[in-house]
Amino acid sequence: MANANPPVLVAQGVGHLSRNFLREVGGVFWFIINTFEETFERLQQGRVPFRAISFFRHTQRAGVDSVPLVGLVSFFLGLTMALLTGYQLQRFGTERLIPGLVAIAFTRELGPLMTGIMLAARIGAAFTAELGTMQVSEEVEAIEAMGIGPLRFLVAPRMLALFFLMPCLSTVSNLAAVLASSLICKAYFSIAFPYFLDLVKDSLLIRDIITGILKSFLFGLLIAAIACYRGHSTTSFTRRFTRHDDPYAHGRVARRVHTI
Q: How far is CA 48 from CA 42, 147, 224, 243, in A?
C-alpha cells in the first residue's frame, strides 16, 4: 500500500464513493417500490393499508405545524430579495420588474426549494429518528411477527403525508414571499398594490406554476423516502454482534408483540 501509485489511490477512492452512492440510490429506489407494492397489494385485497388516524397525524405534523416556519422564513426571504434587487433595478428605472422577478423565482425554484430544505430539517429528521428508534428497540420486528408489513404500516403514511402536503406548503411559501415583496414595493418604490398584482399576473405563466407544483411533489417524495429509508435501515452497534447469540431475543420480540 505504501508503494501504491497516487493516481491509483485516487481512482480507488472515487470508485468506492461511486459504488456507495449507487448503492444508496438503488436502495432508496427499491425502498419506494417495495413500499408502494405493499400498499397496493393491501388495497387490492379490499383492506386499508394503514390506519387513517396515523395518516392524518403525520399530515398535521408535516403540514399544519410547518406553516408558521415556512411562511415566516419565506416572508423575510421575499423582503430581502425584493429590497436588494429593487435597489439595483432602480438605477436603470426598471423597478416595475420586481414583482415579476420575485413571483417567478419563488413559484418555479425558491418556493419548492426552501420548503424542501425546511421540511427535510424539521420533518425528515423526525421520521428518521422515529423509525430508527423503533428498529433498534425491535418494535419493527414485533410488527413483522404480527404479520403486518412495516413498509405499508409505518412508512406509507409518512411518505404520502409529505408527498401531498409539500405543494400546499410550497404555495404558502410563494404567497408569503409575494406579500413581503408587495410591502417593499409599496414602501420603497411607490408601487401600489393593485398595480403590483397586475405586474405579477402579467409575468407569471401557467407553466411556471405547473413546474413549481411538480417539483414540490418530487421533493416531498424524495425527502420522505430518504428519511424513512435511513431510519428503517438503522441498526444498533451492539445488536450486530448479539443478535444471533442472544437467547432472550425472541422473548423480547414476544413482549413487543404483546405490547402492540
A: 6, 15, 21, 33
Whether 232 is in a domain gets the answer yes
Task: Give me the domain span that covers residue 126.
Answer: 51-259
- DSSP label at residue 64: G
Tally of domains within the chain: 1
Exposure letters 7-18 (e unless 16+ CB within 10 A, then b)? eeeeeeeeeeee
| Cα atoms in the Cβ-side hemisphere of radius 13 Å centred on 147 | 1
pLDDT score of 109 more than 50? yes
Instruction: Give the C-alpha separation, 177 to 191, whole Å.
Output: 16
Helices (H) and strands (E) in the chain, counts: 13, 0
Q: Classify residue 239: in a domain, yes or no.
A: yes
Q: Tens digit of pLDDT for each residue in 48-67?
A: 888 889 899 999 988 889 99
**DSSP symbols for 14-25:** HHHHHHHHHHHH
Asked, for residue 39, whether it belongs to a domain, the answer is: no
DSSP structural state of residue 259: H
Q: How far apart are CA 189 and CA 203, in angstroms?
A: 18
Of 161, 111, 143, the residue nearest 232 (C-alpha): 143
**Environment class of 158 (CB within 10 Å of its CB; exposed 0-12, middle 13-18, buried 19+):** buried
- Distance from C-alpha of 59 to C-alpha of 48, rounded to nearest angstrom: 17
